From TrEMBL:
Ranges that cross the membrane: none
Reaction(s) catalysed (UniProt annotation): 4-imidazolone-5-propanoate + H2O = N-formimidoyl-L-glutamate
UniProt EC number: 3.5.2.7
Names of the cofactor(s): Zn(2+); Fe(3+)
Domain of life: Bacteria
Listed name of the protein: Imidazolonepropionase
Positions contributing to N-formimidoyl-L-glutamate binding: Y155, N330, G332
Length: 418
């Protein structure tokens, strides 16, 4: 007799992108909607999904271990946050007066604050303290409906301290219900002891890469390619060395200045390019031609008080790119774990439709971290990661803002929030 571990009934409306591949341009609007749906789960995977009546008749005679009633909620694939700086020590609320007085982000960094202040706090923190702090952030993310998160290192900036952050991320993935995907970002800033010697520090980062790869502590390599941080040439050198070691390139590109980071992402065929507020048309064309996923971070432009935003409409309408969304959760430019805030800001400031936003937070986000085959849509054979929102329809998520819509979260086929 067929066995079902969990049957989810009473879903008011199920909305999901279809397929494993990223959805580009106008195809981001094409989602599947199933009213009054049910999902059957076995061994952490989806085995049936469809209209409830169909699923129930297909399960006649099956042995169902547990049934949960979603009470008319909206079901989406578990949200995926493909860009965070999850593991770090301390916080930076002491910089608020500087920010409010108008001091730019890069100026605070140049004075030894910003990222460098978090580097000090992270170096000083024990592995256990970093773990506990990040574990609480993962709890917050789960309560937001997030089921997979990417986590970057980059607040250690020495081999030992980077490894410490990466070990914490690994342990979090093993012990917390959320899945954690690791990125090595030793090139997040030039540490104080290398001030004015960014080239030498880039060499040091290149030397860290084989050690990180050998230890199996990261899948991706990221670089902050920005004015007064890492040049395009240094970024290229680091990302190529990462590739040689088996780490796929990601890049913080054209966040503040138009340096040519998007062009570099296109040239290297990076898996993703992030931020992109100042990306040129040529850069966006190159992303499209080599299949790079633009990961947009509207929480960051919002929190930095910028009145410009990534050109999501151009990316989707003119360049037919597969836009993804993420929080960029970090203690400086975006101290918020809230994907639901990102959903609202993507509507308000990026002018994305609710369907595009859903695609961006699920299948496109999954592809930005190399997980499109396993997660990012509610389909037979995929991992049973489902978010349930107390919302009558998809457009209600960006519309009714500043509250948490989550009713329940199924992670790996288990009710992680109910
Ligand atoms: O993506 N831009 C560089 N890195 C982060 C900010 C990190 C920080 O301020 O601590 C970002 O915005
Ligand atoms: Fe970032």
């Amino acid at each position: 007799m067929e066995r079902i571990d969990l049957l989810l009934t009473g879903i008011g409306s199920l909305v999901t992108p279809v397929g494993n591949a990223p959805r580009s341009g106008h195809a981001m609007n094409e989602i599947r909607r199933i009213p009054e749906a049910a999902i059957a789960i076995r061994d952490g995977l989806i085995v049936f999904v469809g209209p409830e009546a169909e699923v129930l008749s297909g399960l006649k005679g099956a042995q169902i271990a547990e049934t949960l009633d979603a009470r008319g909620c909206l079901a989406t694939p578990g949200l995926i946050d493909p860009h965070t700086h999850l593991v770090h020590g301390g916080s930076r609320e002491h910089e608020l007066p500087l920010k409010r007085a108008g001091m730019p982000y890069l100026e605070i960094l140049a004075q030894g604050g910003g990222i460098l202040s978090t580097v000090q706090a992270t170096r000083a923190a024990s592995e256990e303290a970093l773990y506990e702090k990040a574990y609480r952030s993962l709890d917050i993310m789960l309560l937001q409906g997030v089921t997979t998160v990417e986590a970057k290192s980059g607040y250690g900036l020495s081999l030992e301290d980077e490894l410490k952050q990466l070990r914490v991320a690994k342990r979090l993935g093993e012990t917390h219900p959320l899945d954690v995907v690791s990125t090595f970002m030793g090139a997040h800033a030039v540490p104080a002891e290398y001030k004015g010697r960014s080239g030498e520090y880039a060499d040091l980062v290149c030397g860290m890469l084989p050690v990180v790869a050998e230890a199996g502590l990261a899948e991706f390599c990221d670089v902050f390619c920005e004015q007064d941080v890492f040049t395009v040439a240094q970024s290229r050198r680091i990302l190529l060395e990462g590739l040689r070691c088996g780490l796929l390139p990601k890049i913080h590109a054209d966040e503040i200045e138009s340096l040519g980071g998007a062009e570099l992402a296109g040239e290297l065929g990076a898996i993703s390019a992030e931020h992109l507020l100042a990306a040129s048309d040529q850069g966006l064309r190159m992303l499209a031609s080599t299949g790079v996923i633009p990961v947009l971070l509207p929480g960051t432009s919002f929190n930095l008080g910028l009145n410009r935003h990534a050109r999501a409409r151009d990316m989707i309408d003119a360049f037919h790119l597969p836009v993804a969304l993420a929080t960029d959760y970090n203690p400086g430019s975006c101290p918020s774990e809230s994907m639901q805030l990102v959903i609202m800001l993507a509507s308000l400031n990026l002018k994305m439709t609710p369907e595009e936003i859903l695609t961006a937070c699920t299948i496109n986000a999954a592809n930005a971290i190399g997980r499109g085959a396993g997660i990012g849509s509610i389909e037979v054979g995929k991992r049973a990661d489902v978010a349930l929102f107390d919302a009558p329809n998809l457009a209600y998520l960006p519309y009714h803002f500043g509250i948490n819509h989550t009713f329940g979260v199924i992670k790996n086929g288990q009710a992680a929030v109910w």
